[in-house]
Design brief:
Protein name: NADH-quinone oxidoreductase subunit F
Strand content: 5-15%
Largest sheet: 5 strands, mixed
Number of helices: 17
Function: NDH-1 shuttles electrons from NADH, via FMN and iron-sulfur (Fe-S) centers, to quinones in the respiratory chain.
Bound molecules: ligand L3W, iron/sulfur cluster
Shape: globular
InterPro entries: NADH-UbQ_OxRdtase_51kDa_CS (IPR001949), NADH-UbQ_OxRdtase_suF (IPR011537), Nuo51_FMN-bd (IPR011538), Nuo51_FMN-bd_sf (IPR037225), Nuop51_4Fe4S-bd (IPR019575), Nuop51_4Fe4S-bd_sf (IPR037207), Soluble_ligand-bd (IPR019554)
Number of strands: 11
Enzyme class: translocase
Distance between the termini: 26 Å
Family: Belongs to the complex I 51 kDa subunit family.
Low-confidence stretches: none
Length: about 425
């Protein structure tokens, strides 16, 4: 899967990438580092940059959609000690594969975005935490860092200004939970990657207990484009409360899976068209619109839904990280849920009893339904376990494990009941 195609709509981050033009000189030819240069030469104030981000409507692209300008404004300006900037490239959500393409094909957009963030929040040290299972991308990012340092875009007195910023890459070990921001910080500190209680949020107690701003790769990478094109114009690409473009990683039963950058608010049907439609002309059955943590939506409902935070919420799900998993009429929902529930069971860090025990319990129940040993009361029992996990854990993994279970049973209960009654799948085998 690659971002290297021309089927985006108004792309910014993925525009004009051909696989080889990731180097600093290519990025500069595309207008790269001009936002940082302008900020430093014209001594644009941090307040003005943060105000622009607020106007742009940029929201966190990692899953929660928290307003970026607001997050940046939390960073205490006059803090006497070290403050940190952290990028979360620990992309592990099933279905999500956009951040790896950003650091592989346009790494300098991230570096410039982080440098601008550091300037705006008065931070001198940053880290990019990269998922342990992606090696080439990690090496690519290290190369890009070297290029930026050699050209004076990182390091001491950037472009001859008084602004210094040291940025380092850190390669994780591949645990999904390290994508949760506080587990990531623990891991970066060299400890076991387990989430902390929030609050305090990283904004006040982050890396090594110091104020820390942590954003997703795509969020930082959007920043130079916003400042170059103008915050209002960026906002206008999308719709109110849903500014700008978003990269959607579309996978599953479509003809052309891959990353597509489109304005927020683009109809899902349009994204399907860009991705070549359903593979083999089959019918659409179900869509998980925001990474595996997002509740599944029936295909016919999704075909009437726009791709923005509010519209997807109205359809009963979440835009999340923008990973769109499409399932056709041949897919068994019980089997799909079995895969998902195994993932969360496997990835639970084990700190909270509802998550540690509940994910295993749900997995074993879905396993027995799938294998012809289900009981009529199992669906209600699964809902009850999910209820007892959701909202009762330290981090969002508990919710992420519970939501797909509830949504699958709500939207496709007949398939679960058929499995229990007939001890095999409802989906006709001839399809
Ligand atoms: C200061 C406050 N800061 C909130 C900050 C907080 C965080 C951001 C959002 O989960 C979701 C999860 C996954 N003072 C603050 C504050 N903040 N209130 O704002 O916080 P939160 O808690 O809403 O979300 P989260 O814990 O960051 C993220 C979902 O994303 N998800 C995840 C996908 C995984 C990937 C991946 O593999 N790359 O993205 C997908 O749907 O389930 O719900 O920074 O500190 N008062
Ligand atoms: Fe760990 Fe699960 Fe608790 Fe998160 S919810 S801290 S993954 S046990």
């Amino acid at each position: 899967m690659t971002s290297l195609h021309d089927r985006h709509i108004n792309p910014l981050i993925l525009k004009d990438l051909n696989g080889d033009n990731w180097h600093l000189e290519d990025y500069v030819k595309r207008g790269g580092y001009s936002a940082l240069r302008r900020i430093l030469e014209e001594k644009i104030t941090p307040e003005a940059i943060i105000a622009d981000l607020k106007t742009s409507g940029l929201r966190g692209r990692g899953g929660a959609g928290f307003p970026t300008g607001l997050k940046w404004s939390f960073m205490p300006r006059q803090f006497p000690g070290q403050k940190y900037l952290v990028c979360n490239t620990d992309e592990g959500e099933p279905g999500t594969f956009k951040d790896r393409d950003i650091i592989r094909y346009n790494p300098h957009a991230l570096i410039e975005g982080m440098a601008i963030g550091a300037y705006a929040m008065g931070i001198t040290v940053g880290y990019n935490y990269i998922h342990g299972e992606i090696f080439q991308e990690y090496l690519r990012f290290e190369e890009a860092l070297e290029e930026a340092r050699a050209a004076g875009f990182l390091g001491d007195k950037i472009m001859g200004s008084e602004f210094s910023f040291q940025l380092h890459a850190h390669h994780g070990y591949g645990a999904y939970i390290c994508g949760e921001e506080t587990a990531l910080l623990e891991s970066l500190e060299g400890k076991k990657g387990q989430p902390r209680f929030k609050p305090p949020f990283p904004a006040s107690f982050g890396l090594y207990g110091k104020p820390t701003t942590i954003n997703n790769t795509e969020t930082f990478a959007a920043v130079p484009f916003i400042l170059n094109m103008g915050a209002a114009e960026y906002m206008g690409l999308g719709k109110p409360n849903n500014g700008g473009t978003k990269i959607f990683s579309i996978s599953g039963d479509v003809e052309r899976p891959g990353n597509y950058e489109v304005p927020l608010g683009t109809p899902f049907a349009k994204l399907m068209e860009l991705a070549g439609g359903m593979r083999g002309g089959k019918k659409i059955k179900a869509v998980i619109p925001g990474g595996s943590s997002a509740p599944v939506v029936r295909g016919d409902v999704m075909m009437q839904t726009d791709l923005d935070y509010d519209s997807i919420a109205k359809a009963g799900s979440m835009l999340g990280s923008g990973a769109v998993i499409v399932m056709d009429e041949t897919r068994c929902m019980v089997k799909s849920l079995l895969r998902l529930s195994y993932f969360y069971y496997e990835e639970s860090c084990g700190q909270c009893t509802p998550c540690r025990e509940g994910t295993g319990w749900m997995y074993r129940m879905v396993h027995r339904i799938e294998h012809g040993q289900g009981r009529p009361e199992d669906m209600d029992m699964l809902n009850s376990i999910a209820d007892n996990i959701q909202g009762r854990t330290i981090c969002a993994l508990g919710d992420a494990a519970a939501m797909p279970v509830r949504a699958m049973i709500k939207n496709f209960r007949e398939e679960f009941e058929y499995h229990v009654e007939h001890k095999h799948c409802l989906v006709p085998t001839y399809l």
